[in-house]
Amino acid sequence: MFNKLKNKINKGDKNPYGYEHLQSLNNYSHLQPSTSQQHPNNPSYTPPSQTQQGFSSGEQYQPPSGPPTSYGRAPSSYYAPPPGPPPSQQPPPVHDWTVIPDTSLLPPPPSIGYEKSPAANATDEESDRAAAWTEANPLWPPASLSSEVYDMIQNARLTLLDAPTYAGDVVSQKQPGHWKCRSKVHCRDSSLLTNLPLYSVYWDSPVHTQRPKTIYFEVKLKGIRKGGSSLAAADAGLAIGFIAPPYPTFRFPGWQRGSLAIHGDDGRKYVNDTFGGVDFTAVFSPGEVLGIGMTFAPPKQASSYDQRKQGNILDIEVFFTRNGVRQGGWDGNEELDQRSPGGAIGLRGECDLFPAIGVFGGVEFEVFFHQSQWIYNPLTL
Q1: What's the rounded Cα separation, in Å, for the pair 289 and 225?
Q2: Which one, out of 158, 266, 309, 360, has a CA that is 20 to 30 A from the CA of 298?
Q3: What would the pLDDT profile of 162-204 be if each residue is shown by its tens digit?
Q4: pLDDT of 51-98, one tens digit each?
Q5: Are 166 and 187 in contact (CB under 8 A)?
Q6: pLDDT below 50 — which residues of the chain?
Q7: What is d(CA 230, CA 283) in angstroms, rounded to the nearest whole number?
Q8: Is the whole-model pTM more than 0.90?
C-alpha cells in the first residue's frame, strides 16, 4: 500500500488520499495576495506587506512588532451591547441575613403533648384497667331513635346520670336541661353522662341531611369544696367533653377511646389521650361558665381517598367558650400522634355522641343543656 502511495506522489497526484470532494470545498485561492488591503473574509484584518510575507530560505522569520493593528479597537461592524442588564431584568434583591425575623408573623408552633398532667391523680393500674375495658367493649353502632325520643333531645329533656365511682348529689331543676351537682371531697374520678345523645347519627348526620349540626352545653363552676382560687390550686377537678358509648365512667372524658374533653385542673385538651394532654387554655376558676361544642358539616371540598380511608368524611370543628366568649378550638379531623391509638375514632360523626362531665374531689357546679340557659349561643352565628 505504501508503494502505491509513493507512486502516486511521484506521478504528481495532488490528492493522493482520494479526497477529491474536499478539494472544491477547501479552495484556498482566497488566501492569495490581492490588490485589496483587507482580508476578504474579515474586513477588519489587514494582511502583512509582501516584504513580510516573502523571505528567503536563509532568513529567519521575525513576527511584526506590537499587537495587530486592530487590537484593542472594536471593529466597526461589531455590536456592542448596552451597558448594564436589560431594563426588564433587574438583579434580584439581596436579602440581609443579619436581620432577625419578626416571630409574630410566623405560624404558631405545633402543640406539645405531655406524658403526664401535673394534676393527675389516677394510677397506672386504673389506666390499664380502662384500656382492657375498652378492648372488651367495642363502640356501639348508632341507635335508630324514634321521633318522640328525638323531640326529647331537642327540648333538652335529658337525664344526667351519675357514675358508680361518683360520690355526691345530682339534682334536677324545674326547667328541663338544668342540673345542680355537688361532689364530695373524697369523690374519685368519675364521668357523668346523659341518658340520651346530643348528636344522633340517625337524625343529625350531614351525610344524610346535607346541612350542619352543632351540639353544645355549658357548665358553671360555682365553688371548690376544699378551698383554692382555682382547680389547679385544689385537690379537685372538673372536665367537659363528649363521648361515644360505651365509656368507662371511672375515667375522665378525653382519656379513653372515642372521647374528647377540656380539663379544668390543667387547662389542657384531651382527645383519646391517656397521657398528659396538650396545652389549650387557662385552668377553670369558681364563678366561670365554661362551654364546649362540636359542629359537623358537609365537606367544603370532596374527600380524598386517604380521608375516606381514615373515616374523615365530614368537616368537624370543636370549640370552647368561657363566660360567653369563644376562646379557641381545633379541627376534629386533625391527625393525632401515637399516644392516641385509633385516632379520633367515634368522634368523626359515625357514632352517637353524649355530653360528659368529669369530676373528682369536692366540686360544686351546674349544668345547662337547653339553649335558653346558655350565655353563648352558637346556633345564631
Answers
A1: 18
A2: 158
A3: 999 999 999 999 999 999 999 999 999 999 999 999 999 999 9
A4: 444 444 455 667 667 666 655 555 555 566 667 666 666 666 776 667
A5: yes
A6: 2, 5-6, 8-9, 13-57, 110, 305
A7: 7
A8: no
| 111: its cell numbers | 402543640
Three-state secondary-structure class, residue 372: helix
**3-class secondary structure, 65:** coil
Cis omega (within 30 of 0) for bond into 246: yes
C-alpha cell at 118: 401535673
CA distance 257 to 130: 10
Per the DSSP assignment, residues forming a β-bridge with 259 are 243
Q: Considering Cα of 146, then 147, then 148, then 152, what sign does the dihedral take?
A: positive
Task: Please state, in angstroms and rounded to a whole number, the distance separating the CA atoms of residues 115 and 127.
Answer: 13
264: enclosing H helix or E strand: none
Nearest-angstrom CA–CA distance, 276 and 373? 33
Q: Provide the grid cell at 275.
A: 397521657
Question: How many CB atoms sit inside 10 A of residue 259's CB?
Answer: 30
What residues have CB less than 8 Å from 232, skipping those under 6 apart? 118, 119, 265, 266, 267, 283
Nine cell digits for residue 86: 436589560
What b/e string do you get for 313-340 counting C-beta neighbours within 10 Å, with b at 16 or more? Answer: bbbbbbbbbbeeeeeebbebbeebeebb
The cell for 116 is 403526664
Domain annotation for the chain: domains and CATH numbers: 124-372 (2.60.120.920)
- Interacting residues of 142 by C-beta distance below 8 A, sequence separation 6+: 200, 201, 202, 350, 351, 352
CA 78 remoteness from chain centre: 59
